[in-house]
Amino acid sequence: RSSSSSMSSSSSVGSLATFAASARGTTTRGRAASASASGGRTRAPEDAVVGDVIAYSRKGETRLGTIDKADGKTGWIVREGGEQTVKVAKKTVEANYGAGVVARDMEAFANKCVEDDSLISSAWELIHELASGDEIIDALYVSDVVFGDVDAERAYAAHRMLNSPAGGLYFKTKAKGQYEPRTAEQIEALTRKAQAEARVEMLERAFVDEIKAAVAAPRGDKPDPATLWRHDDEDNDARVRRFEALQAYALGDKFYSPGEKAMADDLLTKLGFSRSPESALKTLIATGAWSAHENLAIRRYNVPIEFPEHAHEATQALLANAPPDPDASTRLDLTHLKVYAIDDAGTVEVDDGLSVQALGDDGVIRVWVHIADPTRWIERDSALDHIARRRATTVYYPSEMVPMFPLALASGPMSLGGDKCEAMTVRADIAREGCVLDFEIMPSYVKLDRRWTYDDVDAELKSATCDADLRLLYAAARARDERRADDGAVTILLPEVYLDVKGATARGGEDEDITVNMSMLDSEAPARMLVSEMMVLVGDVVGGYGAREGIPLPYRGQNEPRLMSDDEWDRIPEGICQDIAMRMSMSSSTSGATPRPHSGLGLQAYVQFTSPIRRYADILAHYQIKAHLRGERPLPFADAETLERMTEDVGASVGAAIKSQRETTKYWSHVYFSRQPADARWRATLVKLIRGDDLALVIFEDLGFETVIKLDRAGVLGETLTLRFVDADPHAGFVNFARCEPTPTTAA
Predict the structure, then answer these.
(1) DSSP structural state of residue 654
(2) Helix residue spans in 550-639 (DSSP H)
(3) pTM of the model
């Protein structure tokens, strides 16, 4: 027989042949034959004593060691070679090889045997040839088959082979130390399965290696994400599913399923990263799949950014062949009126213009508000109508405007920028006291005379030679503002942050390409009040008309504010602190297809009508009003219930878009502060104590930025604080400031 130092595959197979020749003459199998052949050189596991060498299971592996001493009644202290000892539960002991054997030599011999898969396969072939039925064998029997001997060294080698991956292919474990030879069909099936699993494992290793290489690559040398996370039938699209899981996980709580978390955690573990949404985000950025300033809010709220191809096709078809205008015969030609548009400097969707005329000497002012008429171009339930309904609103991110309609339409024929544009005009005669004496709603043609920016109008209104029409419009706006105040309107004048992000898109961008600037809009500027009052005027007129005529419209309302007591109010400093307190007391707005009071505006009925290029709810109002003016019955939305369902769906989409816009603005604000010099300081007003003397809401005086800070000592409402930047994590949504002593370098 071969010894442990000279054993080879050929000598072992020779032993198998010898055994086969002798075994054909006997019917003894399994443990009976093994026991008779063992000659007492092994003992049962339960008979182990101090000094015996035992095989046992530890951490999923078969280990070999010498019993050093007892560990209570249920365990042993075992020496695993050298001086290292471990605790072994008696129930995990698989075999006992007695004393007087060298565990180190046994382990070395067993390792060689396990590496040679031909030994266990040849053993199976012989046992399968000799088998007369279902038989149970053990390691001693296999030792006798393979080596022609059952001494401790060979018995342990057989035990290891039976418990190796190759052993599991040929033999099925039935009980502790007992095995059943598999059939040839079972082995073939398991072999195919193992080959498939090996292929999957190889693909997985290659995938993980590619991810690691992408992470390590310089920013400009990242692989194409479409290639890195490609579809692949061979791996059942495992890459794509991992990518989707990683993206969902990176968005944070509420945006991933347990399955997606498990899949993402598995990949992060294989990459050697911590298992967390933050690690998922860093991995996506590091591989180049996401930009350094990836807009998570767009993904969280599923805001559509790009238009589908069929939207562009429909747009081109409209531009090439304008549809018939159902209101052509009744459109009133108002191109003789001087029309002013007042917008921000970068506005491309001109959806309203203003005209004005003084009527007599009694102070009555006639105002025309001309509104873009996109429903002249878009038929209800058309492809573009459905797209606009899904998008619900134009979204203004600090880095990019995302329009509700394709810009070729929104800034083209829909916009009031041409020589003769279709519009919906609301005429209102306003008394000196601000009430509406008469009104008319009509389809019209208008011609824009001049585009003004808000800054232009503010400067003009201060001029001694102010444009007469602008001055008249401002007078009408002031009269309306005062009238609404008398009717209970609530005016809250809080500063508004303006962020200008260049070098990024709505979806994000790379850090080195981006600049971020922050400034404050003057909410009390006359130009903004003028435009706001004219828009509210239209909502008042359309709402009143709809209520009078019983027209289902997307009415907006607001309940009375939840006012505090006079004593509580008097304790709040006047100005910005009271404005914040009033904002906190306002009720949520409501919407529905029937008229309702809007206490915040001081109106009995209100319908948004002036931004149909930018708001789908305004489109719904246009469909209804225009059909009613044409005398169509039934109306497009004849019953309130149908329109309310539509309004709710649109409102949900608008809500998601607004949340994404707010979170994106917050993100870029945090980026702005993180880029400021270390010695920068800001003055801020403490406007609300949130949690006793611990947390406070502050507003930066020169920026209008609102944030919550932790106070290091008690604060007082209205107090001016000097703040310094501490740290920020824009993607996590937090920025920290600390109070400090004023310095000469306090900055805006």
Answers:
(1) H
(2) 566-570, 576-585, 616-630
(3) 0.81
- What pLDDT, in 10s, does the model give residues 440-489? 999 999 999 999 999 999 999 999 999 999 999 999 999 999 999 999 99
In eight-state DSSP terms, residue 406 is -
- Please give the torsion angle defined by the CA atoms of residues 460, 462, 467 and 468, in that order, rounded to the nearest 10 degrees: 150
On whether the CB atoms of residues 270 and 259 are closer than 8 A, the answer is no
pLDDT digits (tens, 9 = 90+) for 276-325: 999 999 999 999 999 999 999 999 999 999 999 999 999 999 999 999 99
Helix/strand number for the chain, H first, E second: 23, 25
Alpha-carbon dihedral sign for residues 56, 59, 65, 66: negative
Torsion angles phi and psi, residue 717, rounded to 5: -55, 135
Q: Which of 685, 689, 620 is nearest to 648 (CA)?
A: 620
Helix (H) or strand (E) holding 178: strand 178-181
**And the tokens for 342?**
């007042």
For residue 413, what are the CA distances in angstroms to 236, 408, 423? 48, 8, 11
Q: What is the phi/psi pair of residue 654, to 5°?
A: -65, -40
The per-residue pLDDT for 219 is 85
Name the least confident of 18-27, 374-383, 396-405, 671-680. 18-27
Q: Which two tokens stand for residue 672?
A: 């702005």
How far is it, in rounded angstroms, from Cα 360 to Cα 364? Answer: 7
CA atoms of 300 and 660, how far apart (whole Å): 8
Q: Report the DSSP beta bridge partners of residue 422.
A: 445
Cβ–Cβ < 8 Å for 552, 593: yes
CA distance 400 to 293: 14
Cβ distance 385 to 379 under 8 Å? yes
AA identity, residue 505: T
Rounded Cα distance, 681 and 592, in Å: 47
